[in-house]
Design brief:
Blueprint lengths: L2 H7 L3 E4 L5 H11 L6 H9 L4 E6 L2 E11 L2 E9 L8 H15 L4 E6 L4 H9 L3 E12 L2 E11 L6
Amino acid sequence: MSARAADEGAAPQLRPMREADLDAVMVVERQAYPFPWTAGIFRDCLRAGYPAWLLQEGDAVIGYGVLSVAADEAHVLNVCVAPAAQGRGHGRRLLRALLRIARGHGAARVFLEVRPSNPGAIALYHAEGFNEIGRRPRYYPAVGGREDAIVMALELLPDET
């Protein structure tokens, strides 16, 4: 079996995102969102030291997540899985990795915003313990106008390990 074939059968791997990854990240970002982040936004997050992680399958970037942490709060800024790789638990894996990182940085709670038009993400966040705490009117750009954001929060319990 070739090394490439062995890689393709391996489980996707999480690793820190680097600036050199931004071209591949932008391919996924543009496939997944009608109003994607720019490479500059990702670059600014990396330069600010925000935890940013990639999920890689072989050589292909199939997902990523970006988190900010300040004091005892964290904010999930972006969790994305390539459309062709969705439905296989990758978003859950990325989210759980970001939550472990938040806990490791001393965060007691985590916040995020999600579009009401994204029921798959909402279901994932509810399943992982997030609760809706409010709305941000007209937060997201949308075709023909703006879309509200559902604001969700999760209280992190101390790590029991």
